[in-house]
Structures are given as C-alpha cells and as structure tokens.
Amino acid sequence: MDQQRRVRKAKNPDDPRADDHTPEELAIMERFNNPGWDEEETDHLVPMLPVAQLYARDVLLPHPPGGSKADLLQVLWCPFDHPEQEQWMPRTAVFWRSTADVTEILTSPPEPYAAEELYVPVPCVLAPEQVIEYPTPPDLSKELQEQLKDRSRWQAAGARIDAGFAPHLDSYYAGDLSVAPGWKTGGHPRWGYVDPWPRPCLSCGTDMDPLLTIASVEWDGGGQSWIPYEDETAAASPRNHVRDLARRPTAIQIADLHDQQIYYCPMDPGHPHRELMQ
Ligand SMILES: [Zn+2]
Ligand SMILES: [Zn+2]
Questions:
Q1: Given CB 3.0 to 4.6 Å as the disulfide criterion, which of 25, 47, 128, 261 pairs with 110?
Q2: 143 CA to middle of ligand 1, Å?
Q3: Residue 197 near residue 143 (C-beta atoms within 8 A)
Q4: Nearest bound ligand to CA 42?
C-alpha cells in the first residue's frame, strides 16, 4: 500500500488513477479542487489514517485506562488541520484493544483519497528503546530549578559538562537529560511551545497522563545526547537530506517540526483524550 503516492496522485485532477475511485470518492475530490472547499466538511468524509499500532509485548505502554486488559494501542488521525477547533494539527482517535478479541481484520482497509501530505506517515517498523525521563524545568519546583543552575551540585555529582553549556546548565538539563525527543509512549511534557497548564480529564477531572508523542523529528541539533549510535554518522553529515532521512523516518511534520502529544485519562477508556502541540 503506497498511501503517499496515491494521495499525491489523487490531488492531481488529471491523474489517470482517478478512474480507480468510486463515484463517492470522485465527488469528494471534486470538492477538494473547488476554491470554496470547506475543510471542516471533510472531517467525516475521509477515512482516518493509521498512525501507530503498538503491542504491549513490544513497547512499554502506560497502564491501560480503568484497569482494562488491553494489550494493543492503535492511534489513527484525520490528516488535516482543524482550525475550527483552533487545532493546527490532525485530530486523533485512540483505541485500546485486547488482541485476543481481534478476530476479523479488514484485508483492504479504506484509504484516504485526500490528505495533507505532511500528515501521511511513511510506514515504519519500530526499534523501541526504554529510557528514563525527568520533568522539564517548568514542571519542577522553584527550589529544584535553582539547584539545576548550581554548578557545584553538578560537579559534586561528577557530571562532565561541556564548557559551552556552563552558563546554561538548566538548558543542558532540559535538552540533553530530561525529555527525550522522537516518537514515544509515556514520558513527560516538553513544554516550550506552550506554557505549562493543567490537563484535567474533561469528564472526571483526573489529571491526564502522556500517552503517545507523535514527533516530527527523532532527534535535533540541540540535545546531542539523544542521537542513537546508529544515526551518529548521518547526524554529522552537512547534507540536510542525509540528516533528514535518519531523523525524520516517518516524514510527518507537525507545524514547524513540533510534536503532537496525546494525553489520556487513566481512569476510564471512554473519557475523551486531549492533545497538545509541544
Ligand atoms: Zn479532521
Ligand atoms: Zn476521566
């Protein structure tokens, strides 16, 4: 299945493959090519795209909500911005499943015949690694934030700090030690793009937990410590496309290379999730 190619071609009205579409699809594509096209209207017309499928046997998942026995997390999204909800990124749907209950699988799931190209992921398999994260400075107490700037504490801990970081120890902590870049389950909010704000469940008021981060880049030029060993050669390349092949395997892009982080209610799988640009 080559969704990207199909979407690109489908966007072109002269695409001979348009003949392969159903009359319903052709009618929707015609609307896309209409300058008065209303994106909001598209929401319920385009099949959602699969974005992540994670098995508990492969990836450490946060505890499924409400003590359920789910061992499979599936995330899909509507591959457009949603300005009507002031959400300049796709809107996701989250499904917790028990693999034992999944018996009938569609052999040819519906594909979107239109999508924002930046929101069509290149299919990837995962090579997950487990890392420990710590809250970023905005989520720490004032006292801990001050301690991060105290050079003597770093020295006492035997940390070897690059001289360039010396005046910015809290930035070094934020970039290289606290929150890992890239796609991940669990972890902490990065903050920075938006200021910290409480994330209560809209149904029951329970604090929501980070579930999945959908990242534009696996690593960036800032926190060198997170670059996987196997990507170090690519990371040192002066050629952008060499670096991008390694750091952007899915080729999706949230805004200006940001992340889309999904939060879930740990109490009840039926409570709606929330999402933040990070
Ligand atoms: Zn939508
Ligand atoms: Zn809730």
A1: 47
A2: 43
A3: no
A4: 1
On whether residue 242 sits in a domain, the answer given is: no
User: Which residues, given as ranges, of the chain have pLDDT below 70?
Assistant: 1-21, 24-25, 28-29, 31-44, 163, 165-166, 221-222
Compute, in degrees rounded to 10, the torsion defined by CA atoms 137, 143, 149, 152.
-140
CA of 72 to the centre of ligand 2 (A): 20
Residue 17 placed within a domain: yes
Whole-number Å distance, alpha carbon 48 to ligand 1 midpoint, is 8
Residue 237 included in any domain: no
CA of 118 to the centre of ligand 1 (A): 14
In a domain, 183, yes or no: yes
User: How far away, in angstroms, is 270 Cα from ligand 2 center?
Assistant: 8
ipTM of the complex: 0.96
Domain range enclosing 59: 3-133+179-216+252-277
Distance 121 CA to ligand 1 centre (A): 16
- Distance from Cα 180 to the centre of ligand 1, integer Å: 28
Please give the torsion angle defined by the CA atoms of residues 244, 250, 256 and 258, in that order, rounded to the nearest 10 degrees.
Answer: -110
Total domains, the chain? 1
Residues 228-258: pLDDT tens digits? Answer: 999 999 999 999 999 999 999 999 999 999 9
Q: 229 CB contacts (<8 Å, ≥6 apart)?
A: none
Nearest Cα to Cα of residue 129 among 216, 212, 60: 60
> For the segment 132-174, what is each residue's pLDDT rounded down to a tens digit?
999 999 999 999 999 999 888 888 888 877 767 667 888 889 8
